[in-house]
Amino acid sequence: MARTRDLQLLGTPVWAIALPFVGVIMLIITWGRDLNAVLIVLGAAALVGGIVTAVHHAEVIAHRVGEPFGALILAIAVTVIEVGLIVTLMISGGEKAASLPRETVFSAVMITCNLIIGLCLLVGPIKHWTVRFSAQGTTGAFAVLAALVSLSLVLPAVTTSAPGPTYTGPQLAFAGAVSLVLYGVFVFVQTVRHRDYFLPVEVLQEADSPQESRGEHDHDPPPSNRTTLLSLGLLLVCLVAVVGLAKSESPALEGGLTAAGAPHGVVGVAIALIVLAPETTAAVRAALRNRLQTSMNLALGSAMASIGLTIPVIAVASIWLPTPLELGLSSADIDLFAITVAVGILTLTQGKATVLQGVVHLAVFASYLFIAFNP
């Protein structure tokens, strides 16, 4: 993938302009049709291309606006994809789709808090020995995330006003409103009141080890207004193409999972993995440059946006959706979330990490993935 500096020297790459429109063309060809093997493969390739291109254009915009606004832009872009996928699949999925929002949102939380953070805390220390980040920013973000998950996904499993793992109408409205308020306050703190808590941390000269290296920092000038506006427009085209192609490809995905004997809940895991691919790529690249705070902003920001924005939108959409929302987690998922919270607290309060913390987070994610396929 071309780096931002390439934009200053060579202009926007041809592939970054072409792939969004290739995705739209494939969307037009595949929409509403029963796909044969060739169209499934071509549609999947266009979907991956759209995701990669979305990463590129979001990074261009992020470089222009700077941190932490850049991470926020990418998180919101990913949430738009997620909400679009959930709503479209729930409309066409029948009763089996009642638990899709829970499965997708919880998968996004586990992916961001364990897979993305785990990868970043693995590749960063492998290259830079010990990595540093702002404990004030990451612990504050993680506290908001824990509250959002507990309110939106844990409480519905234990409330008694409605049968099953569901909220009543007033309970769902309250959860949606509080989620939106929590996310809004976090964005205000992140971008205005305590923005310095979320800026990349400079590695101190007095390193803990002589092998600990300084971070690589991009000193390139930001892209021009013209380049930024072009990337913004192409990012929107990418989002439309990705959501539409994922909808077209979903029958093939569900069919493949059914043929493999996988539980229906794995669809939510697959959706979350697809929509979070941009975040994963960007976060790992930042970790390789020894900018762990940027990685943390991307991971935790995406998880919070996935709940703080998705749950309110789904709560409103539930008025028209054909099935009730089953938001309550199973006991196994609640246990995995409790482990994630405990591990996250021990990792994020230190302000620095080694490969050990990365391996622990990845082990928790592997456990979640195993339980998802073998409940």
Automatic annotation (TrEMBL):
Localisation: Membrane
State which residue ranges cross the membrane.
12-31, 37-57, 69-93, 105-126, 138-159, 171-189, 229-246, 266-288, 300-321, 327-348, 355-373
The organism's superkingdom is given as Bacteria
**Recorded GO MF terms:** potassium:proton antiporter activity; sodium:proton antiporter activity
Q: What is the membrane topology noted in the UniProt record heading this document?
A: Multi-pass membrane protein
Question: Main subcellular localization, coarse class?
Answer: membrane
One Gene Ontology cellular component annotation held by this UniProt entry: plasma membrane
Which keywords accompany this UniProt record? Answer: Membrane, Transmembrane, Transmembrane helix
Domain Sodium/calcium exchanger membrane region span(s) in chain numbering: 37-191, 231-373
Presence of the UniProt keyword Kinase in the record: no
Q: What name appears for this protein in its UniProt entry? A: Ionic transporter y4hA
Per UniProt, what is the name of the gene that codes for the protein in this document?
Answer: chaA
